[in-house]
UniProtKB/TrEMBL annotation:
Belongs to the PPR family. P subfamily. PPR repeats lie at residues 277-311, 312-346, 347-381, 418-452, 453-487, 488-522, 523-557, 558-592, 593-627, 628-662, 663-697, 698-728. This is PPR domain-containing protein/PPR_1 domain-containing protein/PPR_2 domain-containing protein/PPR_3 domain-containing protein. InterPro entries: PPR_P_subfamily (IPR050872), PPR_rpt (IPR002885), TPR-like_helical_dom_sf (IPR011990), TPR_mt (IPR057027). Residues 258-340 form the Pentatricopeptide repeat-containing protein-mitochondrial domain. The keyword Repeat applies. Residues 130-162 are annotated as: Disordered. Residues 130-146 have a biased composition (Acidic residues). Keywords: Repeat.
Length: 844
């Protein structure tokens, strides 16, 4: 046997590029001119070569078994054997290195093959990038039309069936397996990873069966962690994912918005010749839909076309669901018509999606027409079809239409309204606050022999309690006893909460005692509802005592319970007791959120207890509560209200030490306090410091600075500061505010100098500013200056207020300026605001 020229050329290229070493075994053999293709190297990997370590070291994502299509070797290993919980011989292709201390690359790369990272990185999972990959060849950026379907191809359908045959269900035993639990524990420790932990995880990974790897992926609460683990495991030495792992990961990602990760997994499967069926593409479509990327979701159809896969009914139904959820019902309807053209007939799931789309758009008649037409289209509606419409009819309180729908279920579809049907209607009516209608269906269901369970009654009771109709709710509870349906803790809690909401706390207490009498033990929610009622009725001290006796009553307060009592004491002004509740709450492991902290700080500040407010904030921060900038600003504002500026400035500096950087509101609070106390230079320095920190001044900042500078008459300094502030953040009304403030402080001369900057825009706000200056001149007895302001307004095509100008005209006449008075009225006449007859009257 001799090698031909092609084989020699390929071997020489391989030796030059060791990464392509596997192509060495892809040569052609010649027997006296007869050319065949050798297949033995695929069935028995490297039988005569002892350099399998060399192969593992140089393998990369470019390694692809690329045998000629004339043989059966183009089919991936998935089709060679059955799924048997093994690694399919990948360990035999790996490197038999006993030194497991070599550090491999950490989680996070999306490279699909074995690679060695010589760097010592023990950070565990790296970030999975969410950047868009390069578009496939020939793909443009145009929108995908809903008609983009292929003509059915029988070969593709057969391939789809082979892929479906590889699916397995992950049993509960796999999740409880010790190996799976230990791997999940190590994954959760990834922020504190070290070489030892990573070695343990690599060692366990090689012992995992494919089903157990799938169980690990399903066990992750954060799907991003599952994706990172998949990438990390895929790069480990002597390990390769079984195809079923890819399928399970795609299913996991379909429940998230990690659409780019799902797309990469699909591309990795294509590079490794792992069969993909329509179901895998439907997973990607759903992920795109969850991310709100409708165009990309529909582009999945084009991806399927280029992969040579025939869309089936599952993918089509997914596409219709995506269009319906995106409020593209018209496109969904056209898509269904296109399905019929290419031979994919809709089923009941297809029509149910369209029915939901009609209901979302409040087109109930069209939804009913579609249900009526379904039998003629060879697809009878099921209970889901009717229940979908019923749910939306319940929102609109359309009781008659629901009864007609129940009759149609029986008459046209032979679907008997069962207990599930009535429970659906009862719960939907109760959810939307229609208790009377829900109660009617409860009675109707009982008349027909259906048993309405506690859940149904509880829903009706909750609906009545929510509406404050406690007599009806209590009557239903008594009727439940009569019918042998003993209320549970949920029903009692709803009634207790209802009594508390209407202020009948005594009735709520009686209901709590009745619970004990009938053997129903109240839970934390029941007691919390009662404590909330006590606090809102002004009995916070009683609520505090009841919470202290919780151990004797065999219930445990939770974070909401403590918060309810704390706010009750705060509203009654019992701040010391409220702080004690907070300390007890923190000791039990419950932490206040910034809003609750701020409410208590505000109460302390209103009473002038600034030291206690500051101490309380520091205690919360030291014990791990989420103290934010708003809490610091509240305390600083309290110090400023007491004119304790030194304490406010000190706390402003402490914010940086606590890594809580002040915002523009914090700076504005201190600037206003400094200006109010005449420390205008320090206020100016603080403004410049705020700007140097990259903070943009807010409208409140502008108003504060303008007010304080105008109050002190430092207009020139104000204008310089405004130029700096406006270069950072524009404020169209800055100069308007300056003029108005100068007018209010009687500095009309400076206000008149700035009038030119205001009249540049000639807006309605500018007219208001001019009117204020004009009126100020008149109040000061300077009508001629007011006339000049009005004249400048006319020059900028701003029409002054007619009533104000009439007063000005009379003032001008009284001071001996008839020409100016006549000129002012004449300008109104020229612009059509005064008739000549009215002009004569005014002048007379």
């Amino acid at each position: 046997m001799v090698l031909n020229f092609t084989s020699f050329h390929r071997i020489r290229k391989t030796l030059a590029k060791p990464r392509m070493f596997i192509d060495l075994f892809q040569f052609h053999a010649c027997y006296h001119g007869w050319k065949t293709t050798t297949t033995y190297f695929y069935v028995y990997p490297f039988p005569c070569i002892g350099h399998d370590a060399f192969f593992s070291l140089w393998s990369s994502k470019k390694l692809v078994l690329n045998f000629h299509s004339s043989t059966n070797l183009s089919t991936h290993y998935v089709e060679r054997g059955n799924f048997d919980d093994s690694n399919d011989g990948y360990d035999r292709c790996g490197h038999n290195d006993s030194n497991d201390n070599m550090v491999l690359s950490s989680f996070g790369s999306h490279s699909g093959d074995c690679q060695i990272d010589q760097t010592h990185d023990y950070n565990g999972f790296g970030d999975v990038e969410e950047l868009d990959e390069e578009e496939e060849e020939g793909e443009d950026g145009s929108d995908i039309d809903e008609n983009a379907l292929l003509v059915p191809n029988p070969s593709n359908r057969n391939r789809e069936q082979r892929v479906e045959s590889k699916r397995v269900e992950i049993e509960e035993e796999e999740f409880r397996h010790p190996l799976v639990r230990e791997v999940c524990r190590l994954i959760q420790l990834q922020p504190d990873w070290n070489p030892k932990l990573e070695w343990e995880l690599r060692h366990l990974l090689r012992s995992l069966k494919p089903r157990q790897v799938c169980a690990v992926l399903h066990s992750q609460a954060d799907e991003r962690v599952a994706l990172k683990f998949f990438y990390w495991a895929d790069r480990q030495w002597r390990y390769r994912h079984h195809p079923v792992v890819y399928y399970v990961l795609l299913e996991v990602l379909s429940k998230t918005k990690l659409c780019q990760g799902a797309k990469r997994v699909l591309r990795l499967m294509a590079r490794r010749r792992i069969e993909c069926g329509p179901k895998e593409f439907s997973y990607l479509m759903v992920s795109y839909s969850r991310a709100g990327r409708l165009r990309d979701a529909m582009r999945v159809l084009t991806m399927m076309q280029r992969a040579g896969i025939e869309p089936d009914l599952l993918v089509c139904n997914t596409a219709i669901h995506v269009l319906v959820m995106a409020d593209r019902l018209d496109k969904a309807l056209r898509f269904v018509e296109r399905m019929k053209v290419v031979g994919i007939m809709p089923n009941v799931v297809t029509y149910n999606c369209l029915i939901k789309g009609y209901c979302e758009m409040h087109r109930f008649k069209d939804a009913m027409e579609l249900i009526n037409e379904m039998p003629s289209k060879g697809c009878s509606p099921d209970k889901v079809s009717y229940h979908t419409v019923m749910g939306f009819l319940c929102k609109e309180k359309m009781t008659k239409e629901i009864r007609d729908l129940l009759e149609k279920m029986l008459k046209y579809s032979n679907l008997l309204p069962d207990q599930v049907t009535y429970n659906t209607v009862i719960h939907m009516f109760s959810k939307h606050g229609h208790g009377d209608e829900a109660l009617e269906f409860v009675r109707e269901a009982e008349e027909k022999g259906f048993l309405v369970e506690k859940v149904g009654y509880s829903a009706v009771v909750h609906s009545f309690c929510k509406g404050g109709r406690m007599d009806e709710a209590k009557a239903i509870v008594n009727a439940m006893f009569y019918k042998g349906c003993i209320p549970d803790v949920v029903t009692y809690t709803a009634v207790i909460n209802g009594f508390c909401q209407v202020g009948k706390v005594d009735q709520a207490k009686k209901m709590l005692r009745q619970m004990h009498k009938h053997g129903c033990k109240p839970n934390t929610v029941s007691y919390t509802a009662l404590l909330n009622g006590l606090c809102h009725s002004g009995n916070s001290t009683e609520a505090r005592e009841m919470m202290n006796m919780s151990e004797g009553e065999w219930w445990t307060p939770n974070a909401i319970t403590y918060s309810v009592v704390m706010h009750g004491l705060r509203r009654e002004g019992k701040l010391s007791e409220a702080c004690e509740v907070v300390n007890e709450m923190i000791e039990k492991g419950f932490f206040l959120n910034p809003v609750e902290i701020n409410l208590l700080i505000q109460s302390l500040c209103r009473e002038g207890k600034m030291d206690k407010a500051k101490k309380f904030m520091e205690v919360c921060m030291n014990k791990g509560c989420a103290v934010n900038v708003v809490n610091f600003t509240t305390v600083i504002h309290g110090f400023c209200q007491k004119d304790d500026l030194e304490a406010a400035l000190s706390l402003l500096d402490d914010m940086y030490l606590s890594n809580k950087h002040p915002d523009a509101v914090t700076f504005t609070t201190v600037i206003d306090a400094l200006g109010r106390n005449g420390r205008i230079e320090e206020a100016n320095e603080l403004v410049m410091k705020m700007l140097s920190k990259g903070l943009a001044p807010t409208p409140v900042t502008y108003r504060t600075v303008i007010h304080r500078y105008c109050q002190m008459g430092r207009v020139e300094d104000l204008l310089k500061l405004l130029e700096t502030m406006l270069s950072r953040q524009k404020c169209k009304t800055a100069y308007n505010q300056v003029i108005e403030k100068l007018c209010s402080f009687g500095n009309l001369e400076e206000a008149d100098k700035l009038l030119g900057k205001v009249l540049k825009t000639a807006s309605r706000l500018d007219a208001k500013t001019c009117h204020m200056l004009l009126e100020s001149y008149m109040n000061k007895g300077i009508p001629l200056s007011a006339y000049k302001v009005a004249s400048r307004m006319f020059q900028r095509n701003l029409i002054p207020d007619l009533m104000l100008c009439e007063k000005l005209s009379k003032r001008l006449m009284s001071v001996g300026k008839p020409e100016e008075a006549d000129s002012l009225i004449l300008r109104f006449v020229e612009r059509g605001h005064i008739s000549p007859q009215c002009q004569e009257k005014l002048l007379s």
